[in-house]
Here is the input.
Amino acid sequence: MSIPIYQVDAFTDKLFSGNPAAVVLLEGQAETTWMQSVAREMNLSETAFVHPQQGGYHLQWFTPQVEVDLCGHATLASAHILWQTGLVKAAETIRFFTRSGWLSASQRNDLIEMDFHSAQVVPVDVTEEIITAVGARPDFTYISGDKWLFEYSEASIIRKLKPDFSALKNHTGRALSVTAPSSTPEFDFVSRYFAPWVGIDEDPVTGSAHCILGPYWAQKLGKNHLTAYQVSARGGIVHMRISGDRTYVGGQAVTLFSGEILSL
Here is the structure.
């Protein structure tokens, strides 16, 4: 039995930029060990596994090392493939059932827009060892669950950071977003995202991080529509709409290739 698999560049309209994700279309639930093996073989930051269920689609995400609770760019990639293959009509909203509850994706103008819960941050003190590992002293430090958020004064600082990922892993956490106001008018802020705790030293573009970053910058800037640039080597653009306790994260996607997994 062959299984369709696609590789999609998410949060971009150009191949070889944005964040690549693999999307595997299944007929039903697969074994966790098999999905983890596929994700390890693909060796991308995330591989998504999608199959139909009543009311929508079941969706799971795996890094090469672990299953994760939420992944924005692989959700965007999955929605893109469901529309591209005709499994879902273009005007239809897709409802995904995940470990984080249900998520929806819809086409809004030229963007795919995903509906996520907003996440809030609280101030936190960090040790000198963590600051040394990151590579520069932040102006403000926060935490949201087990994810840190460090704000810096200038975008140039974010671009130049070279964290010591081995040192970061010695401290409790799951991910770290570093962010600063944009130095160019087309974007409201810039960021990078580090997650060595789950096997991803740096994620190229991280949709789920903007469930934290979007509400944070919306409050600081006094605006509910934002556009951000994630300044990784590949780079990517993320659009956000903040409404109540929801963050709508939008972006574009392009398919790099399609193929088949030849057997389970």
Notes: The helical segments are 32-42, 72-84, 128-134, 155-160, 165-168, 210-221. Residues 60 and 82 are 15 Å apart (CA to CA). The domain at 3-117+250-261 is CATH 3.10.310.10 (Diaminopimelate Epimerase; Chain A, domain 1). The chain is about 20% helix and 40% strand.
